[in-house]
Structures are given as structure tokens and as C-alpha cells.
């Protein structure tokens, strides 16, 4: 890799790391696993950086690699996710939500199916459009709409969010 390409990749990683870890944290429920997942995704991106950096939507491309890497870990063996220790986003102070509210939200998210969780995280945490989310997940816009609709319906009735977080 040329030195300018290497510098460009390092700048990209430095500017996107917190958001990528936050997304991976939402997908995995474990900070250490999230960091490993981001590193795995970025290793794949690095290997093809000269081609990847020319992508029309570079962030969307990397989100897709990250979501695919997360999906791959389920193919190998059954993964048990524990969102109990997920209290705040890395690198960002949480000034609006209490620890209990955040823990209740993550507990409710943990009960969603992985594809629903990915759709909700990309749409509402990463603020992607339906079209961008569909591109990242490799599904149709209609699938994104139905996945997020079903997920939001489940979240509205989640015991974690409706009765003060107790279950």
C-alpha cells in the first residue's frame, strides 16, 4: 500500500472508530467483542483500501462489512449476548439518560432478533436513511421498513421499557 493510501486509511479509522465501536457494541452487547468486530471489519477494508476508498458511500460500505462480520460470528457457533454490562457508549459522555434508562434500552434491544436490532441501530443510532440501511444490510427497503416496524412494536411493549426496567 502506498504511503498516501496508508495515511488515508489511518485518518478514516481515527475519524470513524467511536461510531463503528458504538454500532458494534449495539450488535454484540460486549465492548471487547465490539472492538474485535470492528478490527475484523477494518482489516477486511484495509486489505482492499485502494478500491474501497473510491466507494460512493464509504461509511455505508464499512457498515456493511461490519454487519456481515457480525453475522459471520453466528454462523460459526451459537452466540449468547449479554447486554447487562452495557451502560454507556464509548468515547461519548451521556448527559441525557440515566444509567438505568440506558440499561433498560439495551436490555430491550437485546431481545430483538439480530436483523431487527441491526436495522434499528443503523436507522436510529447511526441515522441512516431506509435506502442506506437497506444497502448496508443487503436487503430491500421494504424489508428495512418491516424489520424496523416490527422492532419498534416490540420495543414499545417491552417490559424493560414499560414498567421501569424491571422484569
Which structural class matches the secondary elements? mainly alpha
Main sheet specs: none
Strand content: under 5%
SSE arrangement, N to C: HHHHHHHHH
Distance between the termini: 52 Å
Low-pLDDT parts are: none
Number of helices: 9
State Rg: 16 Å
Overall strand count: 0
Fraction of helical residues: over 70%
Shape: globular
Global mean pLDDT: 84
Short description:
With 167 residues, the protein is mostly helical. Helix content is 71%, strand content 0%.
Task: Give the helices and strands, then pairings.
Layout lengths: L2 H26 L2 H17 L1 H4 L5 H19 L22 H12 L3 H12 L4 H8 L3 H16 L2 H4 L5
Helix pairs in contact: 1-2, 1-4, 2-4, 4-7, 6-7, 6-8, 7-8
Can you tell me about this structure?
It is a single chain. This protein is mainly alpha-helical. 71% of the residues lie in helices and 0% in strands. It has helices at residues 3-28, 31-47, 49-52, 58-76, 99-110, 114-125, 130-137, 141-156, 159-162. The radius of gyration is 16 Å and the shape is globular. The model has no long low-confidence stretch (mean pLDDT 84).
Amino acid at each position: 500500500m502506498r504511503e498516501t493510501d496508508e495515511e488515508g486509511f489511518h485518518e478514516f479509522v481515527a475519524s470513524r472508530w467511536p461510531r463503528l465501536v458504538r454500532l458494534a457494541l449495539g450488535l454484540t452487547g460486549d465492548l471487547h467483542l465490539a472492538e474485535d468486530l470492528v478490527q475484523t471489519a477494518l482489516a477486511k477494508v484495509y486489505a482492499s483500501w485502494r478500491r474501497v476508498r473510491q466507494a460512493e458511500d464509504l461509511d455505508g460500505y464499512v457498515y456493511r462489512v461490519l454487519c456481515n462480520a457480525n453475522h459471520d460470528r453466528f454462523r460459526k457457533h451459537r452466540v449468547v449476548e449479554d447486554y447487562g454490562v452495557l451502560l454507556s457508549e464509548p468515547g461519548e459522555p451521556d448527559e441525557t439518560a440515566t444509567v438505568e434508562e440506558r440499561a433498560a434500552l439495551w436490555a430491550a434491544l437485546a431481545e430483538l432478533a439480530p436483523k431487527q436490532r441491526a436495522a434499528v441501530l443503523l436507522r436510529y443510532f447511526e441515522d441512516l436513511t431506509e435506502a442506506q440501511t437497506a444497502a448496508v444490510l443487503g436487503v430491500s427497503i421494504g424489508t428495512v421498513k418491516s424489520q424496523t416496524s416490527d422492532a419498534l412494536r416490540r420495543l414499545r411493549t417491552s417490559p424493560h421499557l414499560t414498567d421501569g426496567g424491571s422484569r
